[in-house]
Task: inverse folding
């Protein structure tokens, strides 16, 4: 920080951040602590966790949620990364505009409308299956299957991954790549030895964030997976609104949060706070 | 693999992905112009029947108005909370200011259905479950990060020297902040507020877990009717919602980028 910068006194800054701190303490911190306490039940034991993790519904939901989220993180970062790279390096204004529109539209389309549109697209007698049948490749069961859920989640997360990686790509000096190419490196080799090491921290951050967000998905599994693809979000809802068992719901939620926070913590250790934060914004 | 092949392959994949990303929107818009009372693709007859049905049904109108009733205070509250924080982060050396910024982003990163249950317990205790105030507070947690990101980034681009110059010329800090910094930040603050509005307008998971039976926003109404049977009317509602949200959001993004 340059000298002479009009620095606020700490007590003044404290006043300015007080509303946010109050909001976070009251509506994030306290609820999460309370959730952990409630999950232990009146007997203060791990009975609810045992019930969730030993039931076949609980095991299935956890496995499906974690595997789908891993897959979604990998695919979204790969696809989003590719699009972000073109958005950064394409010379034609048309190409760049098309890319930004294609990324902004799903991002701002609205969670429910987006998933509803995918229901129409992926239906057994929908346009995608007509196309596949015409090509002799279908029909394939997409709606109400784990494939459909993964497609829907990737559709939601590609723009997020692309925006976060675009910021990373902007920081790369393209002359480095050109230098490697001018000295005879192939496009692939230049990407592997010059670009990849520079973008790797951003990719790790993006993977971790997409994974953590994916764990909590509710709308996509409900609309595109139905009863066939049980997600933790749906299981939690069943516990609370069908079995009226808040203890089980909170135990299942804590499990989900622990998995998410663990992945974020590992990536924090790998790449540091600043890069992780930059991937969000 | 030859360079040329990798290059062409990359462009083909990118073109394919762009098409796929836009397909659901276009499909919904096309189907909304069908006059059939059931789904067929391509539609058997065309017309504005679905739109007439939407406009003739008071339930959609009341869902839209409840969405507005939530999103407006959420946007104002988010701006009121996030903008002072952005000033503290950009213009102070408060220890822990980076941690506060990171905490402020929690609403984006936390797995939403688990967070909804955490709020459920507290809301049940405080009698906020199924109330208007409860939903405003819950949506604000999700909307604050958006404003925080936009305004903090903009703040970093406003040169401190401008404030210094004003203060050297005799202005108080308050005057320098209001007259110069806030004025320069205004497009970003408005953009952040609009994006907060959109975030709240779009929110559906929290209202499923925390809302009462009589509380229905537009996304909740669409979710409910999509779950209990597929009606072509939803395509018209979705198209209108998409047009509205995209227009507002893209305007906001444009506003935020203008000041680069």
Result:
């Amino acid at each position: 920080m340059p000298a002479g910068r009009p620095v606020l006194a700490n007590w003044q800054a404290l006043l300015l951040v007080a509303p946010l701190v109050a909001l976070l303490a009251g509506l994030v911190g306290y609820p999460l602590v309370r959730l952990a306490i409630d999950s232990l039940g009146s007997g203060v034991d791990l009975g609810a966790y045992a019930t969730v993790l030993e039931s076949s519904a609980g095991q299935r939901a956890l496995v499906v949620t974690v595997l789908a989220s891993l897959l979604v993180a990998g695919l979204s970062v790969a696809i989003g990364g590719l699009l972000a790279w073109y958005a950064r390096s394409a010379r034609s204004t048309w190409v760049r505009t098309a890319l930004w529109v294609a990324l902004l539209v799903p991002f701002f389309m609205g969670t429910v409308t987006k998933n509803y549109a995918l229901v129409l697209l992926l239906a057994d007698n929908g346009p995608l299956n007509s196309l596949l049948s015409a090509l002799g490749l279908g029909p394939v069961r997409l709606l109400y299957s784990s494939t459909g859920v993964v497609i829907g989640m990737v559709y939601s997360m590609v723009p997020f991954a692309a925006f976060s990686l675009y910021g990373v790509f902007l920081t790369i000096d393209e002359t480095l790549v050109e230098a490697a190419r001018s000295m005879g490196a192939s496009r692939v080799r230049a990407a592997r030895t010059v670009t990849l090491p520079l973008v790797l921290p951003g990719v790790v951050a993006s993977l971790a964030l997409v994974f953590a967000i994916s764990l909590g998905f509710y709308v996509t599994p409900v609309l595109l997976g139905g009863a066939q693809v049980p997600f933790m979000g749906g299981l939690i809802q069943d516990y609370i609104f069908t079995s009226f068992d808040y203890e089980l719901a909170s135990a299942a939620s804590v499990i989900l949060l622990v998995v998410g926070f663990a992945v974020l913590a590992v990536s924090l250790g790998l790449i540091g706070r600043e890069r992780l934060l930059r991937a969000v914004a | 693999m030859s360079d040329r092949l990798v290059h062409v392959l990359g462009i083909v994949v990118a073109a394919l992905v762009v098409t796929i990303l836009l397909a659901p929107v276009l499909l919904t818009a096309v189907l909304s112009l069908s006059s059939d009372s059931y789904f067929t693709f391509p539609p058997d007859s065309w017309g504005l029947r679905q739109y007439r049905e939407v406009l003739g049904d008071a339930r959609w109108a009341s869902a839209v108005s409840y969405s507005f009733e939530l999103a407006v205070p959420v946007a104002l509250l988010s701006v009121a909370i996030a903008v002072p924080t952005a000033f503290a982060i950009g213009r102070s050396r408060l220890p822990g200011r980076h941690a506060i910024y990171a905490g402020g982003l929690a609403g984006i990163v936390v797995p939403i259905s688990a967070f909804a249950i955490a709020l459920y317990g507290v809301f049940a205790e405080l009698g906020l479950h199924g109330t208007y105030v409860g939903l405003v507070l819950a949506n604000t947690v999700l909307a604050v990060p958006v404003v925080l990101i936009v305004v903090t980034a903009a703040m970093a681009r406003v040169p401190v020297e401008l404030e210094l110059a004003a203060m050297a010329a005799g202005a108080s800090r308050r005057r320098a902040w209001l007259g110069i910094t806030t004025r320069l930040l205004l497009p970003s603050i408005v953009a952040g507020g609009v994006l907060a509005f959109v975030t709240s307008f779009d929110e559906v998971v929290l209202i499923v877990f925390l809302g009462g039976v009589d509380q229905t926003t537009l996304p909740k109404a669409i979710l409910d009717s999509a779950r209990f049977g597929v009606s072509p009317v939803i395509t018209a509602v979705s198209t209108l919602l998409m047009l509205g949200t995209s227009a507002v959001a893209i305007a906001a993004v444009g506003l935020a980028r203008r000041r680069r």
